[in-house]
């Protein structure tokens, strides 16, 4: 492995870790906006809309050409539709099952990613990858362990699994399609589709879109746009390109871990032995993935 490849792998790994942590901060903004009376459609519309404005401003500063080829436009359209589907089904599932349970089920996407990469692209599934997936899944299950019992709502479960599947496909498309453009340009189109999609969905369902009504609401809306949307999506593109789709999915275990830590330190949720063990398992999976010595496949060039 030459120096350039090594540097890209390190950068990709760090990007994957930060992308997962940033995405895991969603509760900081979403819960506060829900308290302010905003519905799910409004929260997602503001999140994506403000993120698109930020991305657009960055592209203007960088003076990047927004033109794309027909082939790239098709790929970007597919990415936008996949991310809309993943976001909408996940947030819709919260109406049927608890958010913590949904987050646990959502983390089936690393397995889906690994299976599809193995079946469709003949990617070798190493023992290290299998071990990392098992550790991360076990850790996430412990983070949301409950003794309350009960049967999960079938509709909610199906919605989360669809969200996980579409997100897994999203990661694979980013990894496998040769998009010769910067991460910012990619997400200009992806987030643009998401913003338009939420507006259309609100119109179809008859749910009115509500903008933040005070400075506090605008702060949390901006947080959602900058941290879990803009930064997370941009960094995820680099991670998927430079370390691969499956490792990026495994590093995503830091998403629910971050959410749990926010719950403990911000919302004063209880901390117990099962949480401590869960955190240790997830960190072990991340370390195993991050320090893999195996050379990564040749990645598409990134003009950033």
Description:
This protein has 304 residues and is an all-alpha fold. The protein has one domain. 75% of the residues lie in helices and 0% in strands. The protein has 13 helices and no strands. Helix 1 (3-23) packs antiparallel against helix 10 and helix 7 runs antiparallel to helix 13.
Outline the fold blueprint.
Layout: H1 3-23, H2 26-35, H3 40-62, H4 70-93, H5 99-106, H6 109-121, H7 127-143, H8 154-176, H9 183-205, H10 215-243, H11 245-251, H12 254-265, H13 273-290
Helix pairs in contact: 1-10, 1-11, 1-12, 2-10, 3-9, 3-10, 4-8, 4-9, 5-8, 6-8, 6-11, 7-13, 8-10, 8-11, 9-10, 10-11
Sum up the structure in keywords.
single chain, 304 residues, mainly alpha, 13 helices, 75% helix, globular, disordered C terminus
User: Radius of gyration, rounded?
Assistant: 19 Å
The biggest beta sheet reads: none
**Number of strand elements:** 0
State which percent range the strand residues make up. Answer: under 5%
- Level of helix content? over 70%
Average pLDDT across residues?
A: 83
Low-confidence stretches: 294-304
Q: How many domains comprise the coordinates?
A: 1
Total of helices: 13
- The end-to-end distance, rounded to whole angstroms, is 23 Å
Topology as a string of helices (H) and strands (E): HHHHHHHHHHHHH
Helix/strand structural class:
mainly alpha
Tertiary shape: globular
